[in-house]
Amino acid sequence: MCGIVGLHLRDRALYPELGALLTGMLDQMCDRGPDSAGMSIYGDPTWSPEGHATVSLLENPLSTPELAAALTSALGVEATVLDLDPTTVLHAAVPSDELVAAVRGVAPAARIIGFGSEVTVLKGMGNPTELAHRFGLPNASGWQGVAHTRMATESAVTAEGSHPFSVGTDQCLVHNGSFSNHMSIKHELERGGVVFDSQNDTEVGARFIAKQLSEGVDLEKSLLMLNETFDGFYTLLVSNKDSFAVVRDPISCKPAVIAETDRWVAMASEYRALAGLPGVETARIFEPEPEEVYVWHRQ
To answer: Which of 49, 107, 127, 271 has an alpha carbon within 20 to 30 A of 224's alpha carbon?
Structure first.
């Protein structure tokens, strides 16, 4: 079934409240996906310090001091490591592709689940609200956040199988539904050199979008292309370092509701996840139309 929540803040005065607001939204979706959860936060000064690349990992085989020392040696600049079990978050004052390459060199068995200059991705198994508090999400700040509660249907219950899938720089995708033709698209992408980390159908959608963006296609057009290519029933929320977008399948099988005010834009699988947001009583509230792409850009 799965539950999606996302919050894009327009009012800078709300930035310190991002984590607390997103936690409240996530809590309302626990019954839609009780087995695992993930979240991505854009702009938190601790998790994504300014001037540093951030990489999120699962299955890190090294201790925190060992990983920090190995990365510092490989990069020639200090690398810091945060242990947010089971996610490990890394920082260094280098471009994100350099930090990703260094991680793959010193810890090749680790699973990279997010990277960029703005985003931090956290994933784990168990009750979503408990995970959010364990990670410290209520204390996070920033300008945008996305979270997902998972009820596994297409692959095993694992932390790496939870959403969001972040396979491009500062990009995240969360998904409620199922792609019925994802294997044929996966094979086509593999023939073009795309490498996959899992058997999850959502990863295929994420890598399809990332490929279009890397080739210069804008986010709106990328999602229109996904609608033309993928079969199934789905609601998607896609975020990157300057945008927040929602799209549904042609028959809008999976639920979605959007609320918009001058201070924020929010999306969730159900209205109850939006009911606690400040000023929601005066928000414009609507269900996204089938196949229409809704995009909001950072101001």
So the answer is: 271
Question: Look-up: residue for tokens 């928000």?
Answer: 283
> Residue 202: which of 239, 158, 229, 166 has the closest Cα?
166
d(C-alpha 78, C-alpha 80), whole Å:
7
Q: Is the pLDDT of residue 216 over 70?
A: yes
Nearest C-alpha neighbor of 150 from the set 185, 199, 110, 200: 200
160-175: average pLDDT: 88
The rounded distance, in Å, linking the Cα atoms of 109 and 104 is: 8
Tens-digit pLDDT profile for residues 229-250 = 999 999 999 999 999 999 999 9
Q: Supply the residues annotated as catalytic.
A: 2
